[in-house]
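Let's practice the habit of predicting before peeking. Look at the sequence and jot down your guess about where helices and strands might fall. Then scroll down.
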Amino acid sequence: MAYNYVSTVHKPTVVKLSTSGSFVTAGAKNVVTVQGSKLTVYEIQEEGLEVVGEQCVWDNVLEAKLFRPKSGGGVDYLFLLFESEECAVLQWGSGCALRTVSKLYLGEEFGCPVDFENHSQVALNREQTLFAFHFIQGQLKIVKINPDGTLSAPFKLRLEESPIYDFCFVNEDVFSKCKSPTIAILYPAQQDKMVHLKTYTISLEKRNISDGAFSQKNLENAARRIAPAVSGVFVFGDQLISHLTPSEVRTIQISDFTTTEDVSGKVKHEDPSAVQEDTSISAWCEVDEKRFLLSNSIGKLYGLTITKKDKYELKLEALGHTSVPSTLSWCHGVEPGTLYVGSKCANSMLIEMLSAPNSDDQWISIKETYPNPGPIMDFVVTEAAAGSSQLVTCSGWGKDGSLRVIRKGIGFTEVAAMDLAGVQGLWSLKQSDSAYNQFIVLSFVGVTKLLELQGPCTALTL
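Done guessing? Here is the structure:
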């Protein structure tokens, strides 16, 4: 009988989800990614991202969010939602281990389940005290976050609208007279198939809902996503971005000839006869209360700014091109501004924002790239030198499609680099009481230098 031995020689690299915050310690700058069955915790360094921990997850993760409980001591906790309709709150523990703070089962025996691939399942309010879940058509579940980060038992809310494209909490400062949580729902009408938005006010004491302060009918038919703004709600469509408040609606077009303002303040329009591109928003993140970053399905990165004088004004600017993202995470507290771009179909990136456009007329610079050969659409096995085999793969799709050669071998990770000209010889040394070589002797013409490898690299001249 023949047996096959199968082993994993390459860790998952397809980034489905990402979130940023202070997860390891208070004040730390971390990025957490979900890559298939692997959960990876990074710390942001000057050179790029450094892995500080990895954990296998034996379930399909639908959502990952970092949030800060009131008694968390300035440290963020990690919330994970699984396809098995379970959720968990994790805390970074000693020895790079993750500790489970709380977990809940949110499943239902009856009801029509939502499509996990095309609909949102969870929303978190800005105050980070409530989660809302959508697993069953026509139903929401509300879960309170306790001050210690644990989750309370959920309660159900019935909705008339079904199906629901997307939902989010509306920031409470939009409604000065309303202190109860408010949720916005994007849904299609059953009669005319038009897309509408409606808000509901949630009573936590009575555990019921009532009509909210505003609603909006007849939005763009292609609108599928909404996002909270300090002054209202954003609705993202294929061609339009709408900003809705109880008093007004503002709309801006997404295209190569987006309306902008020049230095003099006059409105200018680029040639409307230009070839149109696919402008549907695939990922977004918040920079601060007035600035947002968006990316479309061909990897074009936009900056969206909202200002208010007499009325709210929207300004959309093209910043540059990246890989087609599945997730965007703004790294708060990092200077200059840094953005993590996670991708399912191309290399993930760490992007640095520029104060002025570069020679390519882009406002971004790629600081570091993280290879991702997935998804592999097709491959062939060919022979390489010395009788070994290699894979030639068709990787990615769209503009990020590539042909890659993959071999099993030993990889190298650069941990330090120094510019040293004129080196004639190189030797390694160790202290008598150490098991490791921690010094490198560098021979130059006329001088010999000793390089210490512990901590920051420092050269000592002999």
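How did you do? Confidence is low (pLDDT under 50) at residues 257-275.
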